[in-house]
Each structure stands twice: as structure tokens, then as C-alpha cells.
Backbone:
């Protein structure tokens, strides 16, 4: 029984997810879904009792799961006995599990603890302990690591463009649109939303000189997306040709 | 005559499109065009009679084509005889053809059945039965298949960024802009339209802390487009170098 | 003298631009600039006399240049003599030159002929006759040619996404926002501006179901930019590795 | 002591940044931060005395640093003695340093000289003198150099698209929306913000023909981002395969 729980709770590094682990992940997602929905007053105000019960249920569930996990972990030599259990409690993934059950004790059924409940989402990262499912993510991280200097300078180019654009538009429009461009920090808000091509349209230049500057800025700003994308594309090609070279030698 | 129809209706796997098949595809597109136009009340209200006739014409056309197809398919051994015809009717592409003629019987000339008429667009996919014209599409699908794990994790990174942004802005602006950021689901609408750089501008942060957070979020959000694009670019390069390696060996 | 003009007017295929040709290109750009500025009523209304003179000047300039060109082209054997000149007038690039001087005769100083004047911009394309300067453009065109099927299917995926989005939002919002989503053509306007991430914000979904659909649509829509960019990136990599293979062999 | 300063101020080309240089860079960033904040009237009006002192402090700091630098540079043979010091003052990086201290003398504590203070940001570029930290930036610049013709033609394609779009929308909407599309320069503002996908939403077509044209323009406009990104991605792949070829030979 204890051994079954040990295996099912993925406490050893088994390559694929056990059925119980899958169920726990689903429960985490469902609990997060209810935390998100509960913040909407037009829903939660009409179903206060329902959400109270939901919070009680998920709180109890995660406490029960935590205790089971604490019980089963004894099969691992490092964590056996009382001292081992204390040691286990302070491992990073176990602390995250602990964080996820705190709201069950402090605010068992209330909605005040929504931020603590959101921390349950961190438990998803425990999936990274299993190696089979995460090759895709590891590849993305590897490309970012390989290209970190290029990406950093691409970020600096972006930040410089944003800063220069903000100063230019502050000079061009600051006198006329005091609310929107009346200082560099205000102008920065415009520069960021424009150069990332979000373009809310809450503020935009209205003078001829401001618009001509914006035309140059937005066309230059194509590089803000194009440069990091080009770097990453090169990085992903490189990774692929490296693994091909390896397989050619093997 | 039956054989001519059989060949023309692409019922055997001929590599290129026959003249009759091309005509049918054009008729499908024209019929879809009229379905789209008919939904616009400022047009359809003034030409009710015209659209009634249009619907009657296309309904009759597709019924006639369906019957011809049912008649000619007998040349295929699998579908010959009455039993074969019944069997043919329940093949996937034939069911789509059937779906496309239903409105001709239920609501022959009315505009209520527009959704059923739109299903005619699905008939276009029967073009995938012929192999010559679809190499480009197959290549795109192949790249998506090869890179499915990277693309999946890139999607997860995007969804995480959207979720974190929504929570942060809910905390920063929820108290001040109750209508726009008063709950995480409302905040999610903002987060999605911002991080995909659509930026409708219906809602946006107005507090200093909300705007500073948005500056960090949108700059990080450049990765939302850059990462999947980089992955796909790497995938398309890989496909090309693979086919080159093959041709070097051949 | 005639020979000097012949060489200077680039009538033979000399690899670099002559000084006179450069001057003519600059005059073309300046004349286009004035055509553009003249359309702005707040400027042209105050300087009617000035723009009349500008139009007269550029009209005379291009007529004079046309006559010089017609005179000098006689040195080319194909276009010598009266018959040769007539033949030359009907070559494509010469017809564009003719188009550019028509406003000088029909509406010499008026502003009505602005569209005819804009055709002068087409004269810029005569730069394509010289081969040295256009390698970069040829490379871009070659990549588009090599990848035309992939790009075509990428366009079809984009158009399908736009069409499906428009139908979904018409169904979700058509009853509530009649002006914005009351028909598929209206919905298409929203779908295009959203999926290309322009996001004017003139219309956007307001119902819960419409917003949930939009969240899925915009996230899927990341592919609208990512797929063609990935294809082009692969194409540019391929071109480079091809030319490297050649230089390895040479 | 002089030698210690000489080394610490990075006046010889030492590969990594000295502690003093790092401190100076941090001071530059902090001083820029205060210049930016001071432009915001809602902050600076309440803390006039504080910002006066801040300006005095940074002014004195940069004057003191400049004098130290001038004193220590004597260890470099080229700049030793009075004549050498004069010669040093007129080197490009030293002129930037001089520019950064001018506001300390002309407007010591006032806010009028904010532009001169912003020039301090240029001092950051002196980091380029050290070679170790800037490989990433050099790579980006190298790709831009290698692909300059392709990028130039990609820019020309973008500008042509913007120009053609502006003319088309001027013809389609100019008569109806005089304020927004009443001239080509006005139309250009719309064309740039649309094709770069910023989409402020301050102006947009409202006629059927204008919207149909915009649908074609924005879909074509996907290339505005896709072409330069593809070129850069190809360029970054090329750089990587070149350095791999080298390392294979070495």
C-alpha cells in the first residue's frame, strides 16, 4: 500500500506520469480555474455558498494529499524516520506543496486567500522532475542560453529605441499634449506600446512633426520583433544541425 | 458517359484536377460568397427575391451533382451496386457532400439555413485527396509535426505569460478600474489582446504601477511571437537540409 | 554629344548609374514629393501659384528629358531612324516615360492630374534594367519563387482562420452588436484587423462567449505571422547554403 | 596612485570592466533616471529642492571624474604633458565626457538643461572600447552588414506598400473622411500605423471599398514583418554555419 502510493505520487523518478499524479495535476488546474472564476464579483456574489464549499473541498484535498505524500516518502532512504520527514518538508518542491495547503488552515472557506491559492499553480513545475516530457522545453531553454548575449543586446537595442523615441516625442508633443507627452515617463508609456506594436490608441501624436517622427520610429521598430526572432531562428537551426552532426558521427 | 463522369468527378485518384472538378470548386466558392453576402441585412433585405433564386439554384446544383456522383461512383468496385452506393454515402467526403445538399431540402430558398450552407466550404478539403497540388501544405504540416513539443511548450510559455500578466494587472488596477480589471477573467481579456499585440485599446492600465508592469509585460511579450516563429524557422531549415542530404545520397 | 547623352541616359546596359540618370531619379522623387504635398489642402490652398509653377517646371523637365531620350536612342541600331523611334516609343519602359509626361500637356499647371503624375513613380522601376544594384531584390524574389507553394498554403491557412473567426464572432456577437458583427462581411472586417494584430479597436467583442472565442482566435493567430516568417527564414537559409555549396565546388 | 586611477578608469584597453568603471556606469544610469523623473511635473514640482541637489551632486561628480581622468591619462604616452592633454580632450569619447559635464557649469542646479544631461547616456557607448563584452552586439551588426542589400530592398518594399496603400485609401476615403484621409500625407499616417500593425485606431476606413482595400493591404502587410525577419534569420544561420566551418578546419 505504502509502496503503491510512493510510486503513484512520483516520489521516485519514474519516467512517465502515474495515474494518481495525472489526477492531482487535473485537480490543481480545476482548483486554479475556480480561484480565477471566484474573483469575478458578478459570479461569486451569487454563489457564495458554492465557492465556500469549493474552497473547503480543495483545501481538504491538498491537505490529505500532503499527508499521504509525507507518509509515503518514508520509503525513500533520505527521508525516512521523523528527522527525514522534517528534512523532506524543507525541500523546494515540498515547500511549494506546503504553500498550497496554507489557505486551507488560515482562511479555510473565505475568498481572501486567493493569492495563496494561486501559488498552487507552481506545483505544476514539479512536472519538470520527470525527464521524458520536457525535451521541448529544454530545447527552448538551451537556445536562449546559447544566444543569451545576442538576445541581451537585442533587448538593449529595443530599450534604446524606446528611450530615444520617448525623448523625441516628449520634445515634439510635450508642449501640446501635456497629459499624454508632458514628461519622459509619460512619453515612455507611448513609446513602449507603439514599438511593441500593441498600439492601444489611448495616446498618439497629433502634430505634423510628431507624426513624421512616429513614421520613422515605427518603421525602425520593425526590428524590435525581427532581430530577436532572427536570433532565435538562427539558434534553433544551429541546435538542429548540431544534433544531426552528432548522429552522423554516431 | 458514366466513365467520363467518373473521371471528371475525380472519383479515381487522378493527379490533376479535371475541368468539371474545377468548375465545381468555383461554384462552391461562388455559393459561399452569396451565403456571406446574404447575411448582410442592408443588401439581402433589398434583394430577397434574388437571394431566394440564388439559394434555389445552388441547392439544385449540388443535389444534381450529388446524384451524378452517386451514379458514376458505381464504376469503382467498392461502391458498385445498391449496397456499394449506401456504403459510399457514409464515407467521410461523401457525408460532407450530403451535408452540403441538406439545405436544398429543408429550407430550399430561405436564409435560415446559412450555417448548413457554409458547410459547403468543407468540400474544398476534398482537394486533399489529390496528391500533386498539396506538397506545400504537407510540408507545413510536417514541420508542425516535427516541432510539436517545442511549439506546445512555446504555447505554454505564452499561456503562463498571459496568466501572470492578468493576475498582476488585476492586483494593480482591479481596485481602480473595476469594470476593466475587476476580476482575473476580465484581466485575462486585457492580457490576451495585449500580449498578442492586437491592442484594441478598449481597456488599458491607467495607474503608474499598472503601466510600469505593462512595460515589462509587453517587452517580455516580444517572445510570444519570436519563440514560435524561431521554432518554425528552424523546422523549415531542417526540412530543407534533410531533403538536400537525401538528394546528395541519391 | 549624342553619344554622351546616350551613355548618360543609360540607354545601353551599363552596370552602374550615370550622373545624369541619378539626377533624373532625384527629380522624379522630388516631383513625387510635391504631388504628395499638393494633395494636402491646408498647404496647397495657400500656395496655389507656387504649385502651379512646380507642376509647370516638372512637366517641362520630363518633356525635355523625353525628347532628349528620343533623340539619343538613335545610336541603338534597333531604334535608329523614324521607324525605330516609333518602335522605341512602344517599348514598356518608354510607355511609362510617356505616361509621366502626359499631365504636362493635358493639365499643365492644374492639380487635377495628380494620379497621372504619381505614375512617374513607375519610372523608378527602370532601375531594374541595370543588374548590379538589384542583387538583394533578386534574392528576395527568388526566395518567394522557391517557396511559392508553402507561402500560398500559409495564405490559405490565414484566410481560413479569418473566415472561421468571422463566422464564429457573427454567431456570438451578431445579435447584440448589430452594427459591428451583424453580418459576416462586417465580422470579416473585425477578423482581419484582429488576426493581422492591427487591432484598431473600433469594434471588439463584448459578450463573454465572444471574448472567450477571441482569446482562442488571437492565440491561434500568432501562426498568421509565424508560419510565413518561418517559411521565408527557411528559404533564405536554403539560398545561402546553396551558394556556399557552389563556392565549395568552384 | 596615478597608475591605479589609470587602470581603474579603463584608459588602457583592459578586457574586463574595473570596479571604478562599473561604479561610474551605475552613476550614469542613476543620473539619467533622475533626469527622466525630473521631467514629470507632478513629481518635480513637489521636490524642487531635492532635484536641485541631485543635479548639483551629479554635476560635481562628473566634473570631478573628468578632472581625475584628465590627470590619469598622462600615463598614456600619446596624451602626456599639456599638449597631450589638449589632444586627449578632442578625442571622440573625451568630447562626449565633456558634453556630459557642461550642464554642471551653465545651469548647475536648474532643470532647463535636461537635454544636455541626457547626453550622458552616450557615455555608455564607451563600453564598446572593451572587446570582451560586446561579441553579441558585433554579431548583430555583422548580420546587418552581410544582409544590408536584402534589408534595404525589404525596406523599399515596405515603403512602396505604405505609399501605394496611402494613395489607395486617399482615393477611397478622401472624399468622406476629409480630416483623416483628405490628403496623401494624412493617408500616409494611417498607412504606416496600419502596416506596422500598431493600429492606434484614431483613423480607419469606414466605406465598404476602403475596408475591402484595407483587408488586402493588411494581409499583404504580413510580409512587412515576415520579409526582414526571414532575411535576418537566414543571416544568423549563415553566421553560425560559417563559424562551425572554421572550427571544423581548425
Residues:
Amino acid at each position: 500500500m505504502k509502496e503503491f502510493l510512493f510510486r503513484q505520487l512520483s516520489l521516485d523518478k519514474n519516467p512517465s506520469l502515474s495515474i494518481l499524479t495525472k489526477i492531482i495535476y487535473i485537480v490543481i488546474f480545476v482548483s486554479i480555474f475556480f480561484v480565477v472564476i471566484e474573483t469575478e464579483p458578478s459570479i461569486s456574489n451569487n454563489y457564495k455558498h458554492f465557492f465556500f464549499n469549493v474552497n473547503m473541498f480543495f483545501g481538504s484535498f491538498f491537505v490529505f494529499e500532503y499527508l499521504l505524500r509525507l507518509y509515503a516518502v518514508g520509503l525513500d532512504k533520505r527521508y525516512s524516520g521523523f528527522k527525514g520527514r522534517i528534512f523532506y518538508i524543507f525541500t523546494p518542491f515540498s515547500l511549494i506543496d506546503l504553500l498550497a495547503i496554507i489557505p486551507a488552515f488560515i482562511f479555510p472557506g473565505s475568498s481572501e486567500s486567493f493569492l495563496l491559492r494561486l501559488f498552487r499553480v507552481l506545483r505544476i513545475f514539479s512536472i519538470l522532475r520527470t525527464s521524458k516530457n520536457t525535451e521541448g522545453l529544454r530545447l527552448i531553454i538551451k537556445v536562449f542560453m546559447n544566444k543569451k548575449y545576442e538576445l541581451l543586446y537585442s533587448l538593449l537595442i529595443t530599450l534604446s529605441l524606446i528611450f530615444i523615441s520617448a525623448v523625441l516625442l516628449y520634445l515634439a508633443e510635450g508642449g501640446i499634449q501635456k497629459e499624454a507627452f508632458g514628461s519622459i515617463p509619460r512619453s515612455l508609456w507611448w513609446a513602449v506600446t507603439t514599438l511593441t506594436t500593441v498600439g492601444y490608441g489611448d495616446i498618439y501624436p497629433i502634430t505634423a512633426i510628431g507624426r513624421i517622427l512616429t513614421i520613422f520610429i515605427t518603421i525602425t521598430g520593425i526590428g524590435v520583433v525581427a532581430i530577436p526572432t532572427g536570433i532565435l531562428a538562427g539558434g534553433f537551426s544551429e541546435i538542429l544541425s548540431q544534433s544531426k552532426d552528432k548522429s552522423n558521427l554516431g
About this structure: The mean pLDDT of chain B is 85. Chain B has two domains: 2-130, 140-249. Chain B touches chain C through 44 residues (CB under 8 Å). Residues 38 and 46 of chain B are 10 Å apart (CA to CA).
